């Protein structure tokens, strides 16, 4: 097999087929091209240059070079190109082709690889398949390891264990580190127990919410100022998004549940909120937690629907109602990506049902009391509401009744002597990175779900 063919195959791995874009999907188009170009046999020497050129074009495509050059529109591929421009970039009559059968063999391998990637909700299967097929792919792993430095730590807390991707990497990096693994999700608990059987003395599963941490740590003999590092990876895990019956994903039909703890702590479901909250409250929920500009219209539509037809109970019902009410089928988000018009409504309900923002605020206060001086906090957030809270804590501005100016400078009329000014400027965190760290192109390619991840790190200094 020629090295160019191998390069093509590697490129193809970066372009999985998007079934929603039949006839105008770049991944599909690439496969057709490769199939045609490599059918006849090995390349002859003279064509090598042209072929190299083709690969360079594909490389540029994969690195979003063309997206930056051309504005994106609805009929264009995910890299910003229409089918015609794809054809021009890929066109090369001089390519000789591989013998018959090569491509078919590769397709078979690709199918097997895809099957392996199908997320499994079964912790036992996960423990057997090891870290190669994690049901949730951890994000920004190298930065987490760099900041937490497990080789120098004795005890770390993974506050959002999920499928244990980050914890596993921490355990692999250092043999002396012990990780306390918190999560409120019973599925995550299963993964934590499976990991504990692999590392019996080094993994301690803790089941509960962030706010239950003091009791859980007390039960295991940990007090304040006793932990070397704390990791947060906020949001939902892939296991939660991918299970239709959990009701988190608008792309899967299921009951509108959205409780991260699957109801273990009681609590109300998203369907309960939609059935019982007053129209005005629904409007406030969508506006505050979803930053949805049309929240009033959506709240009214929900109130009218439940009055006329009964309560909304399924994800598809809510999704379609919002799309019909707003008369939109696609929206562009702040980063210029297409999203469904109900995305923000789903986010708002999830944050409200799980009291997520208050939990995060409380958890950051707990992190401050349980870390040792010199201990490290790492927080990965996925939207601006989460990141604002993390940033406010790290910059010493965590009281939420602030105005335009940071709270510590809020009293504009006050005259400060140098000592009290020093006191005001002093706070307990020292930020490690000035600006948020985001995933690089390679990580984005292999794990598109990490596209909005933002990492902040801080050291407890007082
Ligand atoms: C993005 S996932 C973490 C994935 C994990 N880092 C990994 O690599 O597999 C976030 C996890 O945090 C958990 N979680 C979110 N809010 C929580 C809370 N208030 N208390 C406890 N766990 C929470 C969710 O159940 C979910 O499993």
UniProtKB/TrEMBL annotation:
Keywords: Methyltransferase, S-adenosyl-L-methionine, Transferase
GO MF, one annotated term: rRNA (cytosine-N4-)-methyltransferase activity
UniProt-listed InterPro entries: RsmH, SAM-dep_MeTrfase_MraW_recog, SAM-dependent_MTases_sf
Domain of life (superkingdom): Eukaryota
UniProt keyword ATP-binding present: no
Protein's UniProt keywords contain Zinc: no
GO terms of biological process kind: rRNA base methylation
Family (UniProt): Belongs to the methyltransferase superfamily. RsmH family.
Alphabetical list of PANTHER family matching this protein: 12S RRNA N4-METHYLCYTIDINE METHYLTRANSFERASE, S-ADENOSYL-METHYLTRANSFERASE MRAW
Name this polypeptide is given: Uncharacterized protein
Organism: Parthenolecanium corni
Lineage: Eukaryota, Metazoa, Ecdysozoa, Arthropoda, Hexapoda
